[in-house]
Amino acid sequence: MKVAVCKEPKKPLVFEEWEVPDIGDGEVLIKVHYCGVCHSDVHIADGDWADWVTYPTVPGHEVAGVAVKVGKNVTWIKEGDKVGMPWIYSSCEVCDYCVEGDEPLCPNHEITGITKQGGYAEYMKAPGRFVTKIPDDLDLAHSAPLFCAGVTVYSALKHLNVKPGETVVVHGIGGLGHLAVQYAKAMGARVVAVSHSSEKEEISRQIGADHFIDSSKTDPAEEIKKLGGADVILTTVFRTEAIQPLLDGLAPRGRLSVVGAAQEPLHVAPFDLITKRIILTGSAVGGRKLLRETLQFSADFGIKPMIEVHPFEKVNEVLDRVRSGKVKIRAVLKMT
To answer: pTM of the full predicted structure?
Structure first.
């Protein structure tokens, strides 16, 4: 089978021919049809997470395909099922976090494409307990980004306890943000899209945003306050200096969640925490329960990512497109 291997940081991925993996008891062999390209894959290739990644590695954690072989004792998955694999490859399954369905907090979880071989391959094997079925109403190409981008923002909105009628601000209308707009709208919220690019207004309104704020032309917090303030702000951007101004737009009892991995600290006055009773939090991907919810919610409400599909052979070119911001929303590799 063909695989794309990141042998060392800061080098192009290399194509190699590997044997199709043998599976053991409790494992599933997936024929990968599509694999989403996440910005995390760029971090892996560029060595930004070198202390974390086990090189050489096969990246890819937005896997969508078909189960072609099922190991002994796997009863949840059948051969021929549409399935996928997310960021969480496995976990201990017995710690308090796992028992509560919050596997991303497990101190012993493994990560697809980082500590375990991922989906930039024609086949991959995975632990049956973490392979997730894809609803019949979702096609494989559009399902792939839901295994990371989708579950990340859906999980964040669930943890923020979004209620119908609340004002939800989605900051950053890219691969994550455009899905967050759709989920928040389906949850009954009034959705405000915030982007530094005026080009994102048309997309934002097409996918359900009630209001659009161009943060390159106006103070986003002031515009949010004109709308009555934000009950929820979900920010997907990677720059703290872009997040900081939004804090002033939170209404009393407002909640802000960060899903973009910005490195610099946010600053908040304790007085604001006290007098407005605001909550600042963060969220990363989601466990198996929330992943299943994400996929079914997407199927029920007709939510799909906006994707551009590229042949597997173009993986290095696609990674370059992600680096340079040329991907319009989300890129997906077609493996066969």
So the answer is: 0.95
